[in-house]
Amino acid sequence: MATNAAKLDRAHVWHPFTQMRDWNAPGHEPVVLVEGDGAVLRDDQGREYLDGNSSIWTNLHGHRCREIDEAIRAQLDRLAHSSFLGLTNDVAPALAAELVEAAGLPAHKVFFSDDGSTAMEAALKMVFQARVQRGEAERTLFLSLGHGYHGDTVGAMSAGHSAIFHRVYRPLLFETREVLSPACYRCPYNRAQPERGSDARRTRVCDWECVNVELDRALQEKSASAFVLEPRVQGAAGMRMHPEGYLEKAAALCRARGVWLVLDEVLTGFGRTGTMFAFQHDAGVQPDLVALAKGLTAGYLPVAATLASPEIFDAFLGEYSELKTFFHGHSYTGNALGCAAARANLRLFREEKTLEKNMTLCELLAAETARFWEHPQVGDVRKEGLICAIELVRDFATREAFPFAERVGHRVCEAARQHGLLTRPIGDVLVLMPPYCTTPTQLRRMVEALWLALVEVLPL
Ligand SMILES: Cc1ncc(COP(=O)(O)O)c(C=O)c1O
After folding, report:
1. If we measure between CA atoms, which residue out of 245, 170, 168 comes closest to residue 212?
2. Which residue's alpha carbon is at the smallest distance from atom 3 of ligand 1?
């Protein structure tokens, strides 16, 4: 029985990344979520679901997290929002200081915006304008990883290389140079055969051609300005995971060529990969720009940040009449409610020792999901911190994918709902990305639900 919310939705709403003909088809009953508690979401029929992808990779400490709720309420009693153009407030600067400290980039400046796309859009424009103002206007070329996804604004799409999402917009986008994605499972340079139970990143047989040949070649371009990538895990690409050491090698090459390193930590930031930020796994990586969003407010409110090096920031300083100002910003920049949520999030990390606590959950996720190797249609099970990706294939030996139109991943995730799990696939890659507050029992139930769904759709 369609509820009032479902009827209004059908009549008036257009959903992101959703084929609305399917959504509005007779018989499709949307899940109307009305409550949350920790890792659990409840719909308007009273059914409970585990939030298996942390509400599209945003939520960290769970829904209705007391500390964050209280921080927002306290801020609400003082000030919800005021302009950040030519003014400031007493929350955003404190958050900026905490962010650069957590990132170990104390001299970087923080530019606030609203979501992952705007954080990346700002980063790209900063690079472009800084080059012009430094007298390096010929350095216009962005290099970025194949299959990369940096959001849906026009600049962020230009830096992205998602065949499906970006295809139709190509004529609208500026040119960027695609660099081979160093994801070992499908890397053309990896000479190892697929092996059940083994992580392709560790059993790979190659000579680091991803850096030594592919990136090196791209960096020869005289106009190369910045290298843009999601460090360690390329999320929307299908949780493509990079081999240990890639970033360190890539960053060193970029530095040697004077090419700026722009890291998109929108997904990987705030503990998802085990460290606070993914670039902190690699020694000596000093990004010039870092984009943060999603987990910044622990999944509560849309706040994003772009951290910029002094070298880039200083390129914008000058007389007003020189027009070196970064003429870019948004109405809700520095939003006090969002910044209060983000500060409470960072406080939780410090006081609750979130990163240390997460280690147990990471180990459990790895142990429990190892069973997926038993399924003949599972080609790869890869894990990084609290991200687990299970790639379904038609043929294990050749890594051949299922035909796109079969929507196998989608069907598995639809079936998982019946077992009380909400998650969203990326093509035929199933994703488990639990909130950090998930209990061991809840985690086991998530894995069990996904397994049951898989064997329903692809029987053993
Ligand atoms: C790595 C990465 N960058 C940018 C974005 C865009 O973020 P938003 O959806 O908040 O605009 C996403 C979203 O999934 C992402 O995964």
Report:
1. 245
2. 150
Please tell me the distance from the alpha carbon of residue 99 to that of residue 91, in angstroms, as a whole number.
12
Q: What is the mean pLDDT of residues 62-83?
A: 98
CB 377 within 8 A of CB 451: no
> Domain 70-352 has what CATH class?
alpha beta
Q: Which ligand 1 atom is the nearest neighbour of the CA of 268?
A: 1
Domain 31-64+354-457 has CATH 1.10.10.10: no
Residue corresponding to tokens 């960096």: 219
Coil/strand/helix, residue 392: strand
Calpha distance 408→406 (Å, rounded): 5
Per-residue tokens: 91: 């929350």
Q: Give the phi and the psi of residue 102 in degrees, each rounded to 5.
A: -60, -30
Per DSSP (E only), the strands in 186-230 are 224-229
Domain ranges of the chain: 31-64+354-457, 70-352
- In tens, the pLDDT along 397-440 reads 999 999 999 999 999 999 999 999 999 999 999 999 999 999 99
pTM of the model: 0.98
Q: Which residues line ligand 1 (CB under 6 A)?
A: 115-117, 120, 149-151, 230, 235-236, 264, 266-267, 293
Q: How far is the CA of 395 from the centre of ligand 1 (A)?
A: 31
Pocket test for ligand 1, best of 124, 149, 162, 387 (most atoms within 8 A of CB): 149
- Find the helix or strand (DSSP H, E) in which 344 lies: helix 336-351
Give, in order, the Cα–Cα distances in Å from 328 to each of 21, 155, 318, 324: 37, 13, 16, 12
Residue nearest to atom 7 of ligand 1 (CA): 116
